[in-house]
Amino acid sequence: MSAITSIGDISRVHAAERPDKVALICDDRAWSYAQLDRESNQVANALRAVGVGGQDRVAFLDKNAPEYFTFLLGAGKINAVTVAVNWRLAPPEMEYILDNAEAKVLLIGAEFLGHLAKMNLSTVDTVVVLGASDEYPEFDAWIAGQPVDDPGVSSAVDDTCYQLYTSGTTGLPKGVELTNANFFGMLPAASQEWFFDTDSVNLVAMPLFHVAGSGWGLVGLFNGGTNVLVRDIDPSLILTLIEQHGITNALLVPAVLQFLLMMPNIDDVDFSTMRCMVYGASPITEQVLVGSMTKMGCKFAQAYGLTETTGGITILRPHDHDPGGPKAHLLRSAGEPWGDVELRIVDAGTQDDVPDGEVGEVWCRTAQNMKGYWANPQATAEAFPEGIGDDGRGWFRTGDAGYLRDGYLFIHDRVKDMIVSGGENVYPAEIENVLMKHPDVADVAVIGVPHEKWGETVKAIITPTAGTDPSEQALIAYCKEHLAGYKCPTSVERMDAIPRNPSGKVLKTELRKPYWAGRDRMVN
Q1: Which residues does residue 363 pair with via DSSP β-bridges, in sequence order?
Q2: Quick one: which of 182, 188, 127, 191 has its CA closest to 160?
Q3: Where in the chain are the domains?
Q4: What's the CATH number for 7-320?
Q5: C-alpha closest to that of 391 among 185, 218, 215
Q6: Predicted structure pTM score
Q7: Topology given in CATH for the domain delimited by 422-516
Q8: 194-239 tens-digit pLDDT
């Protein structure tokens, strides 16, 4: 296989070497690598025609759609940067991301035009719609008259090729700049560890605004395999597609694996084509893991990583999955570093390395570490406290607390107060900022509490304003007006005074203790 060093190269190389191979399937539509290359060339030329140049941002806002990949590849062919926006967000949150990214073009699903109508975008001057629209050009018509020739724009290894947004503890999302070097440092290691090759039939079911969705999809295409795309998580459809297409590789979060186990027909599904099921994004219960391994009978591998690390940086390999055996304790770990990844466990106060087995903050150094946070040098400097060297690498603070033992990483808790609910990252500061605007809330703290299905769920603890009596339902409804549904509290409790230390910081560890009593770690 010829060298692939940029996103645009993916369809260029495979169209030349395997033009008739099916690259992408979604519902009853399919693209060969030659068709994927041709359509992405038209996208590239359409973007150039509306003034998009090198390193300009273009945005995608829809559920999983096959056109996302021709849009991503086409942008790559003119060295533009694709920004995938979380479709679960509320319109003000979407607007902030699009403006912050300075997106010039927005490719949006017709389903979300109502959200667009509520936005006042400052930089987007071209809107293209997937589906029917009376107001904006539709995607197929927009690219139809464009040349099918590759514009042939080169892309440097340290150019940004992809930008995903992750919420910060301040409540404002940050744009994670991922480069060609980040992706193409990760993809060879991922391909080997996750058992990919040109014969892979890869299920892409996670949302494309996640690195677990879009990055996973790139692993399949990088190898010249076939991606089978699912628009939205549907357990019944996933089981059907595994049999129908002979799926070999898949990545699912534990909550989805749990849903699959609950399907009444799971015993009738033929999993014989499956090579490897990768799981991650939130911890898994032994019951779900053992149940999934038993039903599917394939290799299982756990991945741990962040958006800022271009996805996985550690792997719990199949041979370490040994429920009930001598290595069963490793199921509590996040596995070992892969590829070029180096790990340190650092005392958050002194920033000195701590001994093996002692808990500290997880730091990593790898070619996978992001270039930085877009237009946010302060946040970038905080994330790389020792700076970034001439080789483009530095020690990145993950924000997770854990320890190393015999080379395996164990995640213990979170340095930051992030909640992981059903594989989605939820930052309490965002919810607290909204609730503090409610006239009946004098003080608030948001924590994660255990939930059997989602791992954790969001709980708000409030102190009401004197003389008021806000109901739980009213406060949750207020949050839903301003935030994506998955971020909103599922319960609200009251306290006369929320505990704080002398400097005013909420003692969230104390607040969480009653809910996590009897558990060996305060993440689920």
Answers
A1: 344, 397
A2: 182
A3: 7-320, 422-516
A4: 3.40.50.12780
A5: 185
A6: 0.86
A7: GMP Synthetase; Chain A, domain 3 (3.30.300)
A8: 999 999 999 999 999 999 999 999 999 999 999 999 999 999 999 9
